[in-house]
Amino acid sequence: MDGSISQESAVSAFSTAIIARSCYLFLDSGPKPRAPATDLPTEILLRIFYLVYAENRSLQLESFHSEHLREDWTHEEPLSPALFPFAIAAVCSRWCDVAATVPEFWTRMTVTVDKNPTDIAAIRACLRWSRSLPLDITVTRSIIDHNTPDEVECQRAQNVRALLRPHLNRIRRLHISVLHSATLPFLFTDLDGPAKLLQSLKLASAIDDGASTQIHSSYGPLVAPVLDTLDISGRCLQDGLLKRPAQTALMSKITSVNISRYRPSGANVEGLSLWQTLRTLSELPILDDLTLCDVHFDINQKYPTVATFTLSRLQTLAFEKLDDSHVLKVVFAVLIGVRLSSTIITDCKVNTLGRIGFTDYLTFENMDVPKNFINMLHHWNGSSLTIDNCDGVDDRFFDIMSRPFKSTSEEECYIAPRMTKLRLLNCDRFTAPALKRFIQARIRAASAPQWGFLNPLATESDEEDMLMMNTKAIGWLDVRGRGPVITKADATWLSEHVQMFSWDALQPDGKRYVVEYDSKKVVVK
Fold first, then answer.
1. Which H or E run contains 21?
2. Rounded distance, CA 230 to CA 213, Å?
3. CA-to-CA distance for 419 and 398, rounded, in angstroms?
4. For the chain, which terminus, N or C, has the lower number of CB atoms within 10 Å?
5. What crossing angle do the helices spanning 10-22 and 120-129 adopt, rounded to 10°?
6. Alpha helices by DSSP H, 23-152
7. Taking a C-beta distance cutoff of 8 angstroms, is the pair 478, 422 a contact?
8. In terms of DSSP bridges, do strands 69-73 and 57-61 run parallel, antiparallel, or are they unpaired?
9. Are 492 and 475 in contact (CB under 8 A)?
10. What confidence tens digit (pLDDT) does each residue in 335-386 have?
């Protein structure tokens, strides 16, 4: 049920139909041709609608940590032209009336707040037809244009908030994606009270143009005892959590936090307090997933030499579009002793980042750090490395990785010694022979007698495999996207020396060099 972007969304068509009905445009003004499907018996229509409803539902885990399954909506683009039940309800007034008799159909709502907003009557109808069932609500825009401000977006959002407020206690998911950050603090300030079913809350803006200048009364804190996922802009974090310490205790079940978009304009502007942000997040007792994206943090504050808090349960960490490597250094300092499952660093400035702590799966995306790339891997002790579109991956990179950075009569210490999986995506500055030399060096180091290089970041409670950073051979190699040419001889050698090996490299002329899985032949497509 994928729709083209150029097509009208089902929500827009449904809103237009509701407006037409309110204006009596559906009243008969004489004989009109009718499609046979519109005259089907009600029971037949309901059976068809239930079949379509079932196609939009699936068994899913209640939450990331839960082992219990429940039936839920399958993911679909909120502005899809075929979004159920809006596409069906927009066909004709009779189909809409029949669909309106089933409350379960209306537990997923999409509301637009741009220059062609969802009509208030359509929103009221959906809320009414869903009766008292739990709701999944998306508030979004049909068009995001960073260069064209929408001066009335906040007012439209205010109207939507007034309609949703009485139903807050039955909302399970509330995802709000607007253009202006000035719209969000208003919604967050007045989004308070009991929200006993709320599991996922997203408050995001495409641009950061400051906080709302309006003053709004607040009736009390947001009580969300089962909130699991929090995705908010830096403005919402600042106004809703950093300035309200007591609020965190009312959302103690949060496991995932995404903080994005805090870019105040002007010279010498103060960024978001990094230390206060981390300290606030440390008060979430089961937080295990954290993403910091496009946030300007205040790096001029004086931080304690030793953190008095920790994020001990954190498992996955992601940085994206951060403009100062000091942010990453502070976060990793707080995480000393914490073993992460995955760390993703995307489009960040890391010119002074000296080391990365415990993380098993490490990913770099869109990085331009040719001089310091090796330094970041010096004390990394994970097993899987993914590098996507990074200029620093060239023959020199693999030559340095092939040599021990410390060599004595008793031991040889290699960079990233425990790495056994390597994935190279859209990296076209290295050659297959350089990669072969690296693979061969790791095989030789892994087969030689090893004295056990002590891991400088290990603790006494770590398993023996983590205490010693003995060099391991590469057992899994994947090269995809833009990449170098590979010869048949190189493909044969790699297939004989790497347990799992795949190669699908795109060239500037559009040709792809693909190594077939079974025969290991090089095919040019």
1. helix 10-22
2. 24
3. 14
4. C
5. 100
6. 42-55, 86-89, 93-99, 120-129
7. yes
8. antiparallel
9. no
10. 887 889 999 999 987 765 556 768 999 999 998 765 567 777 877 889 999 9
Which helix (H) or strand (E) covers residue 146, if one does? none
Rg value, the chain, Cα: 28
Given CA atoms 348, 352, 357, 362 in this order, what sign does their dihedral have? Answer: positive
The list of the chain residues with pLDDT below 70 reads: 1-6, 24-38, 62-67, 185-192, 211-220, 266-268, 301-307, 351-355, 357, 369-372, 408-411, 449-469
Which run of H or E residues covers position 230? Answer: strand 229-233
| Distance, CA of 201 to chain centre | 13
Residues ≥6 apart with Cβ < 8 Å to 170? 132, 133, 134, 135, 197
Residue 407: both structure tokens together: 């060599």
C-alpha torsion 350→351→352→358, nearest 10: 40
The CA-based dihedral angle spanning residues 193, 196, 202, 208, taken in that order and rounded to the nearest 10 degrees: 20
Beta bridge partners of 501: 477
What distance in Å separates the CA atoms of residue 236 and residue 190, rounded to the nearest whole number? 12
Backbone phi and psi for residue 430, each to the nearest 5 degrees, phi listed first: -110, 170
17 by Cβ neighbours in 10 Å (0-12 / 13-18 / 19+) ranks as: buried
Instruction: Find residue 290's DSSP bridge partners.
Output: 257, 317
* AA identity, residue 490: D
What is the rounded CA–CA span in Å between residue 146 and residue 367? 25
Q: With beta carbons less than 8 A apart as the criterion, state whether 513 and 481 touch.
A: no
Q: Which residues, at least 6 apart from 467, have a Cβ–Cβ distance to it below 8 Å?
A: 454, 455, 458
Can you give the pLDDT at residue 461? 45
Q: Are 390 and 364 in contact (CB under 8 A)?
A: yes
Grouping H, G, I as helix, E, B as strand and the rest as coil, residue 388 is strand
Query: Letter for the amino acid at 430?
Result: F
Long-range contacts of 407-410 (CB under 8 A, 24+ apart): 410/451
